Amino acid sequence: MVQGIFQSTAIPVLEQVVNFSQARHVVLAGNIANYGTPGYRARDLSVDNFQSRLKEAIETRRQSPASESPGDPMRTARAPLADVSRESKSILFHDQSDDSIELQVTEMVKNQMQHNLALAIMTSQFRLLQTAISERV
Asked: The pTM is what?
């Protein structure tokens, strides 16, 4: 019964977002730590791949007759020029590196904001559940 309550909220989706952003934060921190290392290539986890897989999982969950889930909090309109900027972001520098420190810090800040937002929404969901469970009429 308790598992069914959690599955009917956005908590499982938010859990996946938090887990992904934590893993990505470790990768981005490694890029910053190795920034001055000659020949080091910056690594990253594919945000687009994660979002498409998460969307598929949400759609699958939504289509199952046993669960009714609320609207998708991760639904966002994609900027039409996002692919162009993503393709032109990497410049190969003279020391064989392929990223700037500014870009790595920017990605880390965006990742941290996504992590904090997911945690804030998750906290709100838990508070709503706690209120619903402890409500006395």
From this structure: 0.68
What is the number of domains present in the chain?
Answer: 1
Confirm whether 86 is domain-assigned.
Answer: no
Instruction: Please name the residues in contact with 23: beta carbons below 8 A apart, sequence gap of 6 or more.
Output: 45
CB atoms within 10 A of CB 21: 22
Contact 70, 9 (CB under 8 A): yes
pLDDT tens for 51-65 read 888 888 888 877 775
CA 40, CA 136: separation in Å to the nearest integer? 60
In a domain, residue 78? The reply is: no
pLDDT tens digits for range 98-108: 568 888 999 99
Range of the domain at 109: 2-73+97-134
